[in-house]
Amino acid sequence: MLGFAAVLAGDRAAGEDLAQDVLIRAYSRWDWIGCLDRPEF
User: Fold this and answer.
1) pLDDT along the chain (41 residues), means of 10
2) FRET label pair with 12: which of 6, 20, 22, 30, CA 20 to 30 Å apart?
3) What is the CA radius of gyration of the chain?
4) In the Cβ-directed half-sphere of 18, how many Cα atoms lie within 13 Å?
5) What sign results for the dihedral spanned by CA atoms 4, 10, 16, 18?
6) Count of H helices and E strands in the chain?
7) Rounded to whole angstroms, how far apart are CA atoms 32 and 8?
8) Spatial contact of 16 and 5, defined as CB atoms under 8 Å apart
9) At 31, which helix (H) or strand (E)?
C-alpha cells in the first residue's frame, strides 16, 4: 500500500502521509467496516 501511495502522491514522504491518513480514517470507522458482510470489497 505504501508503494502505491508513493506513486500516487509523487514521492515517498507524501505517500507515507497519504497511507497514514487512509489507515487513520479506516481505523476510526472500523466498527462499521467490520459489520459488513464482505469488508474486503
Assistant:
1) 92 95 93 78 62
2) 30
3) 12
4) 15
5) negative
6) 3, 0
7) 27
8) yes
9) helix 30-34
Residue written as grid cell 481505523 = 27
Nearest to 16 by CA among 6, 28, 4: 6
Residue with cell 514522504: 13
Q: Write down the pLDDT at residue 39.
A: 63
If you search the block for the grid coordinates 480514517, which residue do you land on? 25
Cα(25)–Cα(13) distance, integer angstroms: 19
pTM of the model: 0.69
Between CA 22 and CA 32 the distance in angstroms is 15
